[in-house]
């Protein structure tokens, strides 16, 4: 283990990618936790991944725009479907989300069954390749997330639940191709869990802090130990979220006493 392995020309874009993902996932995650649809991000992320895999199976992997169109189309259709089921069958919404996830996951396996590199490709989709991120790759994500954040903070009152599902679909589609399915789920749920006892703007800021510290720790540790960055960052986020949750809970109990 040597600090010489920590190359900030690589870690810098990876950290920026993590912060971009957090910018939308932290506020979305608080709503997901409040509404009790915990696995919606995992399902939508897996559907977006299925879109990417389907594009590759059709021979479109060299056409970036075709891949993006396939991924976002799949995610938007899934989000629209879940929006419809929430209005019509709210009592079984979580079960339907789980069903969507397992269908998308097994669909990905089936599409990659004849691909000799299918196992590696599936692993990349799940765990992500955040260390391969470049500054140039982040430019369209910055533009997209700026629009999504504007919609979320200034337009969702007018658009209602459609804003939630639409924002979710586009945010997750972009994120899953950068950080992978597992980190998409972790970034959405773990900061929200850590700050569940808080209210107001401090909850949002604390969620951002938990996520940012987790990404910094995970990326650095993975570089030092030469381990998969996505997997390490999921563990650092879980550890930091647990610690933050315990500290927040202790502070809340002290105030109540």
Q: What would your notes on this structure say?
A:
There is one protein chain. α1 packs parallel to α6, α2 runs parallel beside α4 and α2 packs across α7. This protein starts with 7 loop residues before the first helix and ends with a helix. With 257 residues, it is an all-alpha fold. The longest helix is centred in the last third of the chain and has 34 residues. Helices cover 82% and strands 0% of the residues. The mean pLDDT is 85.
Q: State the major sheet.
A: none
Q: Assign an overall shape.
A: globular
Instruction: Report the helical percentage.
Output: over 70%
Strand content: under 5%
Write the layout of secondary structure elements.
Layout: H1 8-35, H2 40-57, H3 64-88, H4 93-111, H5 118-127, H6 135-159, H7 161-194, H8 201-225, H9 229-256
Give me a quick take on this structure.
The protein is mostly helical. The chain is built from nine helices and no strands.
Task: Please describe the structure with a list of short key phrases separated by commas or semicolons.
mainly alpha, 257 residues, single chain, 82% helix
């Amino acid at each position: 283990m040597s600090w010489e392995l920590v190359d900030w020309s690589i870690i810098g874009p990876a950290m920026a990618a993590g912060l971009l993902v957090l910018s939308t996932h932290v506020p979305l995650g608080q709503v997901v936790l409040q509404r009790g649809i915990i696995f919606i991000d995992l399902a939508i992320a897996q559907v977006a991944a299925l879109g990417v895999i389907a594009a590759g199976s059709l021979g479109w992997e060299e056409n970036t725009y075709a891949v993006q169109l396939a991924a976002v189309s799949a995610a938007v259709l899934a989000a629209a479907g879940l929006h419809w089921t929430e209005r019509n069958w709210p009592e079984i919404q979580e079960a339907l989300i789980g069903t969507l996830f397992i269908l998308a996951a097994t669909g990905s396996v089936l599409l990659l069954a004849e691909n000799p590199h299918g196992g590696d490709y599936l692993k990349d989709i799940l765990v992500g390749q955040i260390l391969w991120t470049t500054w140039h790759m982040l430019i369209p994500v910055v533009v997209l997330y700026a629009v999504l954040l504007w919609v979320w903070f200034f337009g969702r009152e007018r658009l209602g639940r459609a804003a939630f599902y639409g924002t979710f679909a586009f945010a997750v589609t972009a994120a899953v191709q950068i950080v992978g399915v597992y980190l998409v789920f972790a970034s959405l749920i773990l900061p929200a869990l850590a700050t569940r006892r808080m209210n107001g703007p401090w909850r949002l800021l604390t969620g951002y802090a938990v996520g940012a510290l987790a990404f910094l720790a995970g990326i650095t540790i993975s570089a030092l130990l030469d381990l998969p960055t996505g997997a390490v960052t999921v563990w650092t986020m879980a550890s930091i979220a647990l610690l933050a949750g315990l500290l927040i809970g202790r502070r809340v109990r002290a105030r109540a006493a």
